Amino acid sequence: MKRIDCYLDFISPYAYLAFEQLPQALLGLSYELRYQPILFAGLLRHHGQLGPAEIASKRDWTYRQVLWLARQQGIEMRLPAAHPFNPLPLLRLAWACARQGAPNRYAVETIFHHVWRSGAAADDPARLAQLEQALAPALDPRGEVARQALRDATDAALAAGVFGVPSFVVEGRLFWGLDALPMLRAQLAGGEDGAALDALWPQALDVGAGVARARPGNQA
User: Fold this and answer.
1) Dist. CA 168–CA 74, nearest whole Å
2) pTM higher than 0.70 for the full model?
3) d(CA 96, CA 11)
4) Rounded CA gap, 76 and 67, in Å?
5) Cβ neighbours of residue 178 under 8 Å, at least 6 residues apart?
6) What phi and psi, each to the nearest 5 degrees, are found at residue 143?
7) How far apart, in whole angstroms, are the C-alpha atoms of residue 215 and residue 46?
8) Per residue of the chain (220 residues), what is the pLDDT tens digit?
9) How far apart, in whole angstroms, are the C-alpha atoms of residue 12 and residue 24?
């Protein structure tokens, strides 16, 4: 049975939509899925990037697109009262709920719905307290064990080459984004689509590096 490591951050609307679509996208296949909540901001910092919500026009487009995609896919979605927000309490809560090494689908789903179905502030202290009470985590979300689990998962994501969320890693291959779900299915299913994926996968390595743009603050 093939294992999928699903790297996600509750701050991402695309991660929410992918989470909701995943069971249907992989229907009929046999696999083991491990949810790995990570700090998206840690990836951005590592790669020297801004988040989508930190670029004004991209922020507006993101919200419009995810609402459209949710409507097209029949997924309930209400944007939170403020975004981006600090996701650390939610990520640590997820790891505090982890049993057998990772949070289960129920815990991840409950936190996603807290963020993307209420229209309220995701980081409101009163709502966070209610969420924690509802999930009844085995560990203290504010304790060092949950904090370290989040750090370890984020480090593991970086080691696997993850640069964004949602990302799915299976058999050493990285699949990024909501629109990568058909490719992920091909990887798991094999057959004609799997053979086509195997054939095209190494072609990316044949492209030579072109002009390198200087990073901000560097001399051109």
Assistant:
1) 23
2) yes
3) 18
4) 9
5) 14, 17, 18, 21, 69, 166
6) -80, 170
7) 13
8) 999 999 999 999 999 999 999 999 999 999 999 999 999 999 999 999 999 999 999 999 999 999 999 999 999 999 999 999 999 999 999 999 998 899 999 999 999 999 999 999 999 999 999 999 999 999 999 999 999 999 999 999 999 999 999 999 999 999 999 999 999 999 999 999 999 999 999 999 999 989 887 765 544 3
9) 20
Complete domains list, the chain, with CATH: 2-188 (3.40.30.10)
Any residues with CB less than 8 A from the CB of 119 and at least 6 apart, and which? 78, 79, 80, 81
Q: Residue for token digits 């789903």?
A: 109
Which H or E run contains 183?
helix 181-189
